[in-house]
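Exercise 7b. Backbone tokens:
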């Protein structure tokens, strides 16, 4: 039942970004990495009662992206706990709709080509 102390939203999806306020633990941090060209709103009393910190991240350099890609390619970070769903491109059309339901508990889905 413990919630994470840090939540990253890298979706760039306004709905996901607004919903992400419910996932950090009391006193936790919510970090927006994805960028959306729309307004985002949240429930201020919920934000304050949880004593959250909201942060934005931008201005990554090419070297930053290369570092992340190399880290992932060389298995220096265990991503298995984040990737909850996988499918092959041929099966995506059959899987995708089910991933949209809250019951699916998708954190990150990978489509293999």
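Sequence design result:
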């Amino acid at each position: 039942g413990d919630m994470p102390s840090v939540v990253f939203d890298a979706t760039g999806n306004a709905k996901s970004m607004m919903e992400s306020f419910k996932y950090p633990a009391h006193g936790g941090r919510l970090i927006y990495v994805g960028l959306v060209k729309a307004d985002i709103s949240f429930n201020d009393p919920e934000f304050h009662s949880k004593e959250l910190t909201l942060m934005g991240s931008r201005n990554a350099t090419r070297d930053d992206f290369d570092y992340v890609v190399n880290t992932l390619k060389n298995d220096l970070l265990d991503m298995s706990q984040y990737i909850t769903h996988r499918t092959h491109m041929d099966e995506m059309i059959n899987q995708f709709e089910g991933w949209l339901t809250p019951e699916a508990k998708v954190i990150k889905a990978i489509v293999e080509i």
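Instructor comment: The domain at 1-58 is CATH 3.40.50.720 (Rossmann fold). The first strand starts at residue 6 and ends at 9.
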